[in-house]
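1st attempt posting a full record on here, be nice pls
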Amino acid sequence: MAEPNQQNQPNQENQQKTSTDRLFRIAITLKGLDGAVQLVGALILAFIPATVVTGFAHAVITRDLLGDPSGTLARHLELATEHFVSGGTKTFAVAYLLAHGLIKLLLVWALARKWMRAYPVAMVVLGAFVVYEVYRAINTHSIALPFFAALDAVIIVLVYREYRQLRRERARQRESDGPGAGSADSDSMDSGS
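the predicted structure (as tokens):
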């Protein structure tokens, strides 16, 4: 009677691994798409004239797309547009989106290849982005940055879980390969081969 319970345990572990793996793959795919959109957005923002930005903001406000034209959201959009057009925010937005997009794409590529060294790097880099996004949101009263910080925090948790799982799998594989095979295999496994 003890055997069915033992057989259920690996099935539950495989089911959990499959769910976690699927969630991780979805998360890094979304992160990759987010990185690509940020990269394209940075390039668009770099070349978009200030008159287009102010015209767009004016159209949104005057058509009551944010509610009352003198309401909080409309004032926030007007203020953000003024800061953006003045130069400092535009430069920051372009640099931030460009750096964030490139780094995300590189990390997603490395994580998709299951390159072990990329996992800790991804957690540290995304953690730095979270800290900076929160800091910047506090200073600028941005509406979008806390959302991106929360998304990055969720991705960090998923990367950590995947990293732990991958380390366990590779440790089991080294144990099953026997003594002496571990040192040569661990280098090839870390490189993603």
